[in-house]
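Help needed: design a sequence for this.
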């Protein structure tokens, strides 16, 4: 995406962002649909969506699907039917989302589905000319199916009266600049806080160094229920931040200096997720100030809770 598009998105100037997309759509010579790596594919070529049976393809990350799931309701307002071909991990969330008539598990082959027009989920806001009120989140737009067993086992319970804080510090291979060294997270072990790790694949030595027992899970539904049991999530820019935001849960997101377009380059709040608080690096690669600010804010929160008691 061009820099001006990024600036428009960060500023919430969506009309300008869609105009830039229109220009690109008119100028670029696209290869045939559905060729090459899926995350690089442009699916929508300007076809009419109104009154159509629309297939929404989820070809990017889990966090992208969760973030852009908010646009299924306004898409359904104009489409005849909306089918979302999504990552299997997200099926329980997607099939419950407003605007989704049918959710089907994504796989490596071609979809065995009837549809009239298809689009990638991150292309939907451009196609529907999403307005600021479509983007701004006024209430949680993801709901969770009930669990048979509690999300947090009794042997990993939280101390009574403490602030329960979940941690995620590692990302996938997409952008390793987002990863926070786990040793720095020990600074969050302040009085009145009980830490637990939601980081999948964390090593025993890392958990011991941080002082956070493992409560991780590969199940996104269980993870969502865990977030609802915790008082706060502190995480890097990864899927769990989007899940917490979509659920309306309290989360602090630690961002590197050159953060992704979906976050403002400065400031503590996100247009996309009002329940999130953002902590930005001041110097590329330096997480010390970020964790120092998070610790200071965490201490103040604990002291405020004690004052209330």
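Sure. Designed sequence:
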């Amino acid at each position: 995406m061009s820099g001006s598009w990024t600036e428009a998105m960060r500023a919430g100037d969506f009309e300008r962002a869609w105009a830039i997309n229109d220009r690109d759509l008119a100028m670029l010579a696209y290869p045939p649909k559905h060729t090459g790596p899926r995350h690089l594919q442009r699916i929508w070529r300007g076809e009419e969506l109104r009154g159509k049976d629309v297939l929404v393809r989820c070809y990017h990350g889990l966090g992208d699907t969760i973030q852009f799931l908010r646009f299924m309701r306004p898409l359904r307002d104009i489409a005849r039917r909306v089918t979302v071909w999504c990552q299997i991990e997200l099926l329980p969330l997607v099939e419950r989302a407003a605007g989704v008539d049918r959710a089907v598990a994504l796989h490596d082959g071609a979809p065995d589905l009837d549809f009239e027009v298809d689009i990638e989920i991150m292309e939907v806001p451009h196609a529907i000319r999403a307005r600021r009120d479509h983007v701004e989140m006024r209430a949680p737009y993801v709901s969770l199916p009930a669990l048979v067993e509690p999300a947090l086992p009794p042997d990993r319970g939280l101390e009574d009266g403490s602030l329960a804080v979940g941690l995620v510090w590692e990302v996938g291979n997409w952008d390793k600049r987002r990863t926070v060294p786990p040793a720095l997270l020990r600074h969050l072990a302040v009085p009145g806080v009980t830490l637990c790790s939601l980081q999948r694949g964390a090593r025993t030595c890392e958990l011991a160094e941080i002082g956070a027992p493992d409560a991780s899970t590969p199940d996104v539904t269980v993870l969502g229920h865990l977030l609802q049991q915790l008082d706060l999530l502190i995480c890097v820019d990864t899927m769990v931040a989007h899940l917490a935001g979509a659920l309306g849960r309290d989360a602090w997101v630690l961002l590197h200096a050159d953060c992704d377009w979906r976050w403002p380059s400065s400031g503590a709040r996100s247009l996309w997720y009002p329940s999130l608080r953002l902590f930005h690096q001041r110097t590329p690669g330096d997480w010390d100030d970020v964790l120092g600010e998070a610790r200071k804010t965490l201490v103040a929160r604990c002291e405020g809770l004690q004052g209330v008691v």
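The first strand starts at residue 53 and ends at 57.
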